[in-house]
Amino acid sequence: DFPSVIYQADWLLPMDGPPLSKGWLRVEGDRITAVGSSSNPPPPTDDIQTFPGCVLLPGLINMHCHLELTALHHKLPSEKSFPIWVEALRALTATMEPVDYRKSSEQGIVQLLHGGTTTVVDVGNTGEAPTALAQSSLRAVALVETLGLDPILAESRFSHYRALSESVAATSRVRIGLVPHAAYSCSPELIRAVIGFQRDRNLPITFHASESREEEELFSSASGALQEFCRSFFKSVPEHRHTTPIKYLEKSGLLPDHAMVVHGNHLDAEDIGILVERKATVVHCPSSHAFFGHKPFPYHVLRQAGVPVCLGTDSLASGDSLSMLDQVRMFRNNFPSVTAEEALQIATMAAARALGLENEIGILRTGFKADFIAVACASKTDPYESLITDNVVTTVVDGQPTPSI
Questions:
Q1: What secondary structure does DSSP assign to 255-278, as a single string?
Q2: Angle in degrees, 0-180, between the axes of helices 213-221 and 82-93, rounded to the nearest 10
């Protein structure tokens, strides 16, 4: 038996139903055991946590982050040329030691929690972020990123990255796996190995795709700055023509069902049709998108086609915030016809569904994990719209509150 704690606020947003005035939820251990409103007051208990002027809602789910790069905020140029940014990133990370990556990850975790994130899909290169996440209060899928274009080296590269991921013990909240960086930076052999690894462990498969103009150029005409950048690492880099990253992955048998495509800024109609067929999800990162000045994200086209869209922060090396509430705000500013309710559902219910955790998180319902946040709310009539402009007051993961902001 666990002691019960009642959390109550002016409003409660279950996400799968209407707002509850004077809403409350009862937590026992790591689970929600009851949800109610003013029409059915909570049972008496010795421990009642009240948040006046606030809304309770499910914790936000950050579907793409690079915690190891947190310390690089404001240290990289905001360039229209993606390869220039990558070269600057490589130069900076070459000076970093493991302890730097660990501290950077720990700083990022604090910012995630303060910005309303309770679950994160993180991508790192060193194993330091998975270690930091395993010691944190966050729920996470911590992925070690694989790179390597030379097919002859695919087996050794895969073994190296697998050992790196397996050097950190998973926890009840943190699952650890691998991720191929992108179709232009990994050989087919390496991508296949990673997909098999993830499938064997029932872990999500995600990769960067269709992010930049230079990537589009690489796949359409085997030319441009990104093609030359890849050639500097592997002289026999493949030369793609008249295709796109999504078409290439599909034709090569490298696009599994339910994959998560990060960015997806340069998608044509055929790409979107493939994503529909593969039941894929596209992860949009508003802060990073603005940093690079990418072409407009095709949200409405994807939504009309039935492709789920989720949100992520990306890293502070290519953006200004690790707050998921900030990402929701930016998304609303870019797509004003999207309601606040829809934007928040994208950052909760839709993300949980993409991770296969729709029966565990993303909704405030009896039996679900006690992952939720309290956000200041000035409005007496529209809690969805009001909290978009206010701040996170507290974050609870697995029934355990983090320190107040």
A1: --TT-EEEE--S--HHHHHHHHHT
A2: 110
Q: In whole angstroms, how far apart are CA 371 and each of 73, 139, 186?
A: 28, 9, 36
For 65-75, write each residue's pLDDT tens digit.
999 999 999 89
Which residues, listed in sequence order, are joined to residue 216 by a DSSP beta bridge? none
Residues of the chain with pLDDT under 50: 404-405
**Residue 343 and residue 303: Cα distance in Å, rounded?**
12
CA distance 77 to 117: 27
Distance from C-alpha of 395 to C-alpha of 62, rounded to nearest angstrom: 14
d(CA 107, CA 178): 23
Residue 328 identity (one-letter amino acid): V
Please give the C-alpha separations between residue 83 and each of 215, 224, 227, 230, 285, in angstroms, as whole numbers: 9, 10, 9, 9, 19
Whole-number pLDDT of residue 77? 80
> What is the model's pLDDT at position 390?
73
Identify the pLDDT of residue 382: 84
What are the CA-CA distances from residue 294 to residues 166, 242, 271 (Å)? 36, 21, 18
Residue 405 is predicted with a pLDDT of 41
Give tens-digit pLDDT for 351-366. 999 999 999 999 999 9
**CA–CA gap between residue 248 and residue 253 (Å, rounded):** 9
Nearest to 214 by CA among 227, 197, 201: 227
